[in-house]
Structure formats: structure tokens, C-alpha cells
Amino acid sequence: MSTSDDGRFGDPEAPRSLEARLRALGEELAVPAPPPADVARAVRARLQDGRAARSRARWRPSPRVAAAVVAALMAVLLGATPQGRAAVVSVLRFAGVEIDVGGAGPLPTRAPGPLPSERRVTLEEARRTVRFPIVVPAVLGEPVDVRIADGGRVVTLRWPGIRLDEFDGTLGVVWHKELGGPWPEQVSAVGGWWIRQPHGVSYVPSGGGTPREERAAGPTLIWQHGLVGLRLEGPDDRAEAVRIALSVR
Amino acid sequence: MDDDEAVTRALAGDLDAYEVLVTRYSAVAHRTASLLGAGDEAEDVVQEAFVKAFRHLGGFRRGSSFRPWLLRIVANETHDLTRSRGRRSDLTVRLSGVREPYGPDDPEGAAVDADGKARLLAAVRALPEREREVVVCRYFLQLSEAETAEVLGVRLGTVKSRTFRALRRLREEVGDEHL
Lengths: 249, 179
What we know:
A: 26% strand; globular; B: mainly alpha; Arc Repressor Mutant, subunit A
């Protein structure tokens, strides 16, 4: 029995092989699809709407939450006291990441842009350049893309669908995040935090300064390995993110 | 604009360039979602997949082929959908111009199914899910073995062995001869 690609170029009079029959059958299967231009418009609208993937299913604020957010924003706009505002927006600072919880507006619409003076390097080059030890999750293997940015302050490793930022987690704020509730979940397995909802993230350049424009980020795991701060974005599932985090070497 | 240029521009936030990719791969994405079991929800799955692909474009390995990378996201979305519905991912498509369903209770169906297509489709539907997915990718979507492996997220050897088992099962069911 053969599983080779026979039948396609054979004698047309010969009995057709099962594989050729399957291909012919596939060509007759009616699959309705909307006009591609309509799909392109719909996708574009959703991207511009700043809604991250699955936002409809997992992150549509209930009317009560939406009302609370509106009320909170109104309080700020109407000149509520600083104490009043602090009650609305809680700040979590951890491993170089500052997270504002509770005061987020709509998700930003920007797609990920490059970090300051970002350039592509090899893993070896990155290891020689930056001052902190770079770790790699064993379960993901060699990254397909390695970038260093902002004078070696941040290293970004990428695998298909996964992004891991590594940075010195002891010297001030590197990332600023804004989210509506709920509060991030503490992940004791890695001593970090899991942000399960899409949220806005911006990079805070070295020496302070104005944060870069906000972009939308998906669910993210933040933790610290030694002195290195890490943020892992890509896995939508907390268990999967933790499995990756636990395998860093 | 070729795929690589479109990806480069889209990575820089150019939504026009991304529209080019969406338009180019919309049909095959719908076909993939639908044949892998998304059924009526193929349109939602495809939109979701394109939005997600844009978000994760940074993870696309430059210089490799965009199509199987995208179709893997479509396949994963389809998989998540069927799992979240707690149902088996059925092959719900219809054969154009062929009377269905074919079954033992439907002797007339057999009479009009002169070339055995409905019978073959019924046999594909009855395959175990993992084997059916490989048949869908290899023959209905006409992907290569390597593309099939990428789309389904399995090793090349797994694609080969599942194809082998699926074809053996189909032969037992419908024979290997031209009807």
C-alpha cells in the first residue's frame, strides 16, 4: 500500500487511486465563504476597535463593570480628591512592571511597535551585550527571533505566537500596564502575577521620561528569575504560561 | 505586494498591508475552518484568527510561508471552538450536486451516488478525528505533508502515519477501485 502522491499525473484512463478520488471529492465540497473584501473590512474594524482576540468571548465588561468604570472616570473628570482617585486605581509594582488596576479606559488600538533603538541580534550576541543573564524556557527551545533594545535594557525573545521580554527587574519601572479589573492573580509557582485579560502596555524608557505609546497586550505572566524581570505574552492559558516559566534555564 | 512585504508593513502597524493578506487568504481560511469542523461558525473563527494573527505577527518566522502559519491559527481557533461547545468537530459540509445523506436506510441515495462520492465523504466523516483532520488537510485542502504538520501542530512522521491509517480505513470502507 502506498501513501505517495500518486494519481495526480497518472494516465487519466487508469482507475483513479483513493488519494486522487479524495482530492477530486475535496474540489466538489461546497464551502460558503463571504467575499474576501468583506472579511478584510470586518477584521480591520476589529483591529481598529482595539479589541484583542477573544475579547468578545472573554473580556466584555458586564454593564455593571462598565457603569463602575464610567463612574470612576466621571469622578476623576469632576475633580475628585486624590484620595478618591487612589481608591479607584490601585497600583501594583513588581519586578520592573507597574500595573494600574481599575482606571483603564478602552484598550489601545496600536499594534506592537519596536522599542527604542531595537535591533535584531543572535542569542550569543545578546548574551554578550546585556548586563543581566538571559534565560531561555527549555520547553520552547531556541527562540526564532532575538532583539535587544534601549542600550541592552530589554531583550525580547520570540517563538511563533509567543513573546518573552527580559529586563533588569531591580532598577525602576520598565513597563507600565493599565487594566480594568479583575486584579492580577498571584502565581505562587513562579512567584509572579498572571494578568488574564487583554490590557494596555507601554514601555517606560530608561531614565524615566514619557512612556511610549500604549499598545494592546494579551494575557501576560510576569515574574522574576534572579534579578531578571520577565514578561511572557502569547499563551492564553495560565497553566501553559506557568509551564513555560518554570522551564527557564 | 508579496507576503513578506505585506508582513513587514503590517508589523509596522500598516493596516492596509494587513488587509492585503486577509483578502488573499480569506477563502482558504474559511475552507480550513469549515472543513475542520467550525460549521456555521467558520466566519467567526476566521475573523478571530485574523485578529489573533495580527497580534502575534511578531512571532511569525520571517522568510517562512505565511499560509500554513495562518492556517495553524485557524485550526487552533476551530479546535478551541469545538472544544468549548463540548462537541466533536464534525465535517458538516455538503457535496454540491450529490444527493445526501448516504446510508443504509437510504437505498435511493446509493442509486444516485454513481461515482461513490457521497459514500466516500461519509467514510471520511466516520474517521477518528485525528485521522480525519489529516485527510482534510492533505486531500481536501491539498496541503503538503510539511504544511499539514505545521497546521495541525504535529510532527511530520505523525502526519505520515495518520495518513497511512486513514487511507487504510477508507479502503476497507469504500475499496480502492474506481467505481
